[in-house]
């Protein structure tokens, strides 16, 4: 064996060790990013550069300690150190600024909050029992907990809006909305997705159907988009019933929050409210029949699947799973169309039987 073959070549074993180290230390990276977001360091650095000494003084850190934090962020690709002790944002770090047009600030705040991370320590128990880890840890379901925590609830709503932003840029041109009169966005949050669809299809009217808390910002979204008279807000419980009047029911990132029984109930309520020519358009992850790495996906769908179990007791589903859900609700899946790979979602269209 030559010296270069024995010492200088990075082979499969090295790559494997590096992957293991990355994931074993993943929680440390999460906490590092969480601290940076909580302190607002990306906003403090801004478009130019900032000295660690100045950032430390602003946030009450000794200069050496702030330098250590910023260098860890640089190692994660969120900032750079153009000269010793001076830091600038990398493109990834800029996404954590509040004022970035594609900001992930609130998304990062919610998903690195202690209330989101602590239930993961109960992953084994949750998988064995089928019970939601969040409820095991905090004693109440996530949405009930959020109702009692207005600040965290506002961050959650903003995080969901930011997560929807990329889909809202793509969905309006990816489906034939023009054949419908009124679309109801079931569980549509602050109206980000519906506003984008209506802006792209000026003859269409829309309704966001949400809980009172979930729809708190929807009216403002519609007003800002100039959709007065075309978009309205209705509140209620989609597990109980849905109002009539729409011929397309849009459901994005809702069914994966629920077990099969409740997901079927939501679809059955859509079926009961729609006319004979109506459709349901489900926008969710569609898992392949067997696991395979997806380098284009921004979020690993299988980790997302576990997150649904941990936080709310839901799950991601395969095409066959959606077929079964829809059949149980009196619907038939008519088409499944993947959105671009970086979006991570597919369109599942279903029609009444």
TrEMBL record:
Alphabetical UniProt keywords: Methyltransferase, S-adenosyl-L-methionine, Transferase
Gene3D superfamilies: 1.10.287.1350, Vaccinia Virus protein VP39 (3.40.50.150), Winged helix-like DNA-binding domain superfamily/Winged helix DNA-binding domain (1.10.10.10)
GO terms of biological process kind: methylation
Sequence ranges assigned to domain O-methyltransferase dimerisation in this UniProt record: 21-96
Lineage: Bacteria, Bacillati, Actinomycetota, Actinomycetes, Kitasatosporales
Record SUPFAM superfamilies: S-adenosyl-L-methionine-dependent methyltransferases (SSF53335), Winged helix' DNA-binding domain (SSF46785)
Location of the O-methyltransferase C-terminal domain: 120-331
Protein name: Methyltransferase
Origin: domain of life: Bacteria
Listed InterPro entries: COMT-like, COMT_C, COMT_dimerisation, SAM-dependent_MTases_sf, WH-like_DNA-bd_sf, WH_DNA-bd_sf
Transmembrane segments: none
A single MF term (Gene Ontology): methyltransferase activity
Keyword match Transferase: yes
Organism: Streptomyces luteosporeus
């Amino acid at each position: 064996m030559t010296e270069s073959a024995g010492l200088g070549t990075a082979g499969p074993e090295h790559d494997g060790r590096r992957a293991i180290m990355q994931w074993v230390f993943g929680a440390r990276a999460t906490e590092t990013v969480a601290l940076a977001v909580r302190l607002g360091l990306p906003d403090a650095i801004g478009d130019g550069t900032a000295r660690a000494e100045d950032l430390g003084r602003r946030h009450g850190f000794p200069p050496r300690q702030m330098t250590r934090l910023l260098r860890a962020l640089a190692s994660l690709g969120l900032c750079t150190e153009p000269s010793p002790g001076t830091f600038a944002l990398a493109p990834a770090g800029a996404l954590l600024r509040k004022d970035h047009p594609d900001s992930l600030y609130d998304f990062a705040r919610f998903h690195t909050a202690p209330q989101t991370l602590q239930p993961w320590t109960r992953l084994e128990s949750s998988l064995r029992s089928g019970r939601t880890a969040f409820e095991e840890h905090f004693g109440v379901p996530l949405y009930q907990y959020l109702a009692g925590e207005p600040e965290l609830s506002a961050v959650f709503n903003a995080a969901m809006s930011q997560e929807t932003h990329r889909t809202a840029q793509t969905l309006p041109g990816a489906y034939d909305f023009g054949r419908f009169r009124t679309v109801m966005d079931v569980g549509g949050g602050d109206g980000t997705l519906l506003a984008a669809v209506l802006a792209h299809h000026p003859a269409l009217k829309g309704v966001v159907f949400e809980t009172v808390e979930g729809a708190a910002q929807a009216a403002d979204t519609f007003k800002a988009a100039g959709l007065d008279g075309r978009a309205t807000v209705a509140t209620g419980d989609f597990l109980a019933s849905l109002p009539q009047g729409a011929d397309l029911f849009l459901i994005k990132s809702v069914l994966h929050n629920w077990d099969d029984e409740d997901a079927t109930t939501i679809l059955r309520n859509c079926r009961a409210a729609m006319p004979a020519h109506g459709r349901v358009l489900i926008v969710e992850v569609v898992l392949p029949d067997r696991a395979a790495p997806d380098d284009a996906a921004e979020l690993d769908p299988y980790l997302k699947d576990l997150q649904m179990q941990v936080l709310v007791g839901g799950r991601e589903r395969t095409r066959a799973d959606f077929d079964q859900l829809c059949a149980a609700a009196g619907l038939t899946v008519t088409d499944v169309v993947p959105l671009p790979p970086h979006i991570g979602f597919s369109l599942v269209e279903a029609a009444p039987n």
